[in-house]
Amino acid sequence: MRFGLCFGDFAHAAEKLPLAKEKLGYDYVEVALCKLAEMSDGQVKEFGGACDAAGLKTEATNVFFSGAAPLTGPHVEEKGLLSYADRALMKAASLGVKTAVLGSGAARRVPEGFSKEVAFEQMADITYKLGETAKPYGITIVIEPLNRTETNFIHSGEEGLALMRRVGHPNVGILLDYYHMCVEKEDLAVVAKAAGSGRLGHVHISSPTRYFPRGKEAEACIPFFAALKKAGYDGRMSAECYGDPFTDDWNSEILRQALARA
Question: Which of 173, 105, 103, 175 is nearest to 135 (CA)?
Fold first, then answer.
């Protein structure tokens, strides 16, 4: 399994990325797609150079859409969404991104009084088209279930799998996030279901309090690691946590040890 760090400090990338590799031992970084989209081509190239110098790649992105771009409801502007996605994914591909996480809880929130059934079809339709947009760049979109405090739509792995099946696109898979699973009290049996679909494309890890898991919280993650191992998952796992990974020393070795004990 490869361990990644969710990284957002673009301004200090040249200083921080070597620490992520040498001190903390991460294999790759994951960044916000909406932030990449705002950067000039020169800034993206500069960040890519910092990654190369540190011996890291940007292999994944999160925060696909900002909350200003609705994915459901009566005011969806599909043309603008897909135009943005193409520009953003082109920049991501230039950095070596292979997986783009589609969480974006504010963007997918279903407006009050709007049909959830219609919203589901809207989400399936736009996600299929995002898969088509991502295909030429060799990027897979992974649907991220989010807990009910962050959005009112697609909370569980089961619901994420249902959406993924409805989309039915080879460039669309699913992500499992341990934090959201804990909040939703979701049974770990969903790990085998997601892996059995052949489309479990990415994993996020944090403690149940959304900080980096260590000590007893790292021990609490072991059943999740064990479920992933049993299901045969051997892909990427990104640490997506509150706090500063450098001052708080989010050492990937802690995750590797938890995986070894699972």
Answer: 173
